[in-house]
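An example makes the point: we print one protein in full, the chain in one-letter code, the fold tokenised, without further comment:
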Amino acid sequence: QVQLVESGGGLVQAGGSLRLSCAASGRTFSSYAMGWFRQAPGKEREFVATISANGGRTYYADSVKGRFTISRDNARNTVYLQMNSLKPEDTAVYYCAASGTMIAGTPVNEYEYDYWGQGTQVTVSS
């Protein structure tokens, strides 16, 4: 069982930056690939970024590539999402997720993830 708690969301102006954190419980964090998803009002949840269990591989949605960076610190059981050059369309609730079945890969589908956090709101004003 893995519990995930996101933090770092908030209100920021367009062009600004935020860093989201996701702290995981348990001693097997390094056995999970981790991902970030987001859900904007009235829209379906969508993939944002993912990182393999050892941190060696990352993958991003086209909409955030070059602006967002996913990283992890397995010693701290934490995954991060650095978001730069934020746009109003980045406004959403951001969720982190853990995949115990795709540990060496970079899963992009919701069904590939086993555990989810409660989400943190990011609002980008124009």
In short: The longest strand covers residues 92-99. The mean pLDDT is 95. The CA atoms of residues 52 and 105 lie 5 Å apart. The two ends are 40 Å apart (CA to CA).
